[in-house]
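Typical record is below.
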Amino acid sequence: MKRLLIIVLVAIAFMGTGIPKAKAMDPVTIGILAPIILPYAIPVAEAALKYAFKGLVNAAKGTPYILQDMIGVFLLPVGFLEVTLGLPFGLFANGCSNIGAGIVAPFKLGFHTFMLIPRMFCLYQ
């Protein structure tokens, strides 16, 4: 009885949705439209190229921060190892600082990843 009730509820939930149909343009139409569109598209693309390149260069300046934070995530287990196994060797203080850096690293990673978008639009240097 439970299964029948679940099947009926799922069927009612999906009753109004239709099957999506593919909408594609055939290659012949693209070939016909290309001589019409290209004379207008090429100058626009050339004008946008310098802005797109500037945005990519700014985004590339932010990627070392992301890589540094990705490596920083691994400081948390290294810090725990230093605190536990390295205690007799005097690595407790270094382990505590690595634990702190490892806890903060995912948040910094999220921030620097989120800030790539303003960097690409040249809003943040």
Summary: The chain has five helices and no strands. The radius of gyration is 27 Å.
